[in-house]
Specification:
Layout (H helix, E strand, L loop, with lengths): L1 H6 L1 H26 L3 H24 L3 H22 L1 H4 L2 H7 L6 H21 L8 H37 L9 H18 L3 E8 L2 H8 L1 H17 L6 E6 L2 E7 L3 H18 L10 E7 L6 H17 L5 E3 L1
Parallel strand pairs: 4-5
Antiparallel strand pairs: 1-3, 1-4, 2-3
This protein binds guanosine-5'-triphosphate.
């Protein structure tokens, strides 16, 4: 639970906003109902309940988009009702809302919802003159300040989102080849173990190691060696299904994670990869790269570390037996 809270930004934000809503708006709702302002009290209660429901759904389903949009839309309507009922006093709520809507939904969605909110307020102010604003000047000042705040909040949220995505990409992919990195592999293997035990989903693992790669570096240079590693990833991907994932394990070693596979099929796939590398990875001098492959099916109740270790042992055996071959255990 703590891990999901740490890694899923929008889930953490939905939870945080809901906690703040319960702490800050619920007392208001009680106060409004107690003092007979039923419309505002009811709107406050709807906002609190909607937040609780949306956040619960997000935690259960893992989907934060629909609950976030739902919560943001309910808040927009809530703010409109509060502005209609309280007039100028209600307008103060627009400003904090303009900031925290960016914590609930993506910057573009938040900006569009804010635009709709401001247009609705503008229509309301013109249909019911003097209800929300006491003068034209006040109305103008409100729309200019909220417009400027929306634009700056959008720019800030958009930049933060771009940086978050970039950080995530840097943390999860290998800088040279663009394949998923070892950290991502560990997470994916843990998920595979979970899916195997809960859904009985069969998984296979292939560990590939290019043969005599040191000689490539020595004979053709490190840059050429890098280019071969970069080229290898799309070659492997072209031979696999979209659901199969390629990871760089380190150096010239790669891991392929294959779901919904039977042991016989794992061997066929490994052979296909071995042959594909030999056919497609041509060296500058016209010779071909070869690869050794070790593979293992995930056993019931097995830890991912032991699964990976068995595939590593199989790879060791393939190397030991002369390279350019497949060993599945
Ligand atoms: N160009 C390049 N070389 C790398 C990279 N990472 C590791 N290497 C090289 O890969 C080579 C691996 O050498 P070894 O572990 O001896 O293996 P090998 O020569 O492939 O021999 P076998 O695996 O036994 O067939 C070393 O020379 C490393 O310097 C990289 O990112 N780029």
């Amino acid at each position: 639970m703590l891990k999901r809270f740490k890694t899923d930004f929008y889930l953490a934000m939905l939870t945080l906003v809901t906690t703040l809503i319960v702490l800050c708006i619920l007392p208001y709702a009680v106060y409004r109902l107690y003092t007979g302002n039923y419309l505002v009290g009811f709107a406050d209660l709807v906002v609190v309940l909607s937040s609780l429901i949306a956040t619960t759904v997000a935690w259960r389903s893992g989907d934060t988009v629909k609950p976030g949009v739902f919560m943001a839309a309910v808040f927009c309507i809530g703010v409109l009702v509060i502005c209609f009922a309280l007039g100028i006093d209600g307008l103060f709520w627009v400003y904090p809302f303009m900031v925290f809507i960016f914590f609930l939904v993506s910057p573009f969605r938040a900006f569009i919802l804010l635009l709709l909110l401001l247009i609705s307020l503008f229509v309301m102010a013109n249909v019911f003159p003097n209800r929300v604003f006491s003068s034209q000047f006040q109305m103008m000042a409100f729309f200019v300040t909220t417009g400027v705040t929306s634009i700056f909040a959008f720019i800030f949220a958009y930049r933060a989102q771009v940086q978050r995505f970039e950080l995530h990409r840097l943390a999860t992919t290998d800088g040279l080849t663009g394949a998923a990195n070892r950290r991502t592999l560990n997470d994916r293997l843990a998920i595979a173990v979970l899916e195997m035990s809960k859904l009985e989903r069969p998984y296979g693992l292939l560990l590939l190691d290019l043969d005599h790669f040191k000689q490539i570096n020595d004979n053709h240079g490190h840059k050429q060696g890098d280019e071969i590693l970069v080229k290898l990833v799309p070659v492997l991907q072209s031979l696999l299904r979209q659901s199969d994932q390629v990871f760089r394990f380190g150096g010239e070693e790669f891991v392929v994670l294959i779901s919904d596979v039977k042991p016989a099929m794992l061997l066929v796939l490994a052979e296909k990869l071995r042959a594909g590398v030999q056919q497609q990875m041509v060296l500058p001098n016209g010779s071909y790269m070869t690869t050794s492959i070790g593979g293992a099916m995930l056993k019931p109740d097995e830890e991912w570390e032991s699964w990976l270790h068995r595939a590593d042992m199989a790879l060791y055996q393939a190397k030991h037996q002369g390279r350019n071959q497949v060993v599945i255990v």
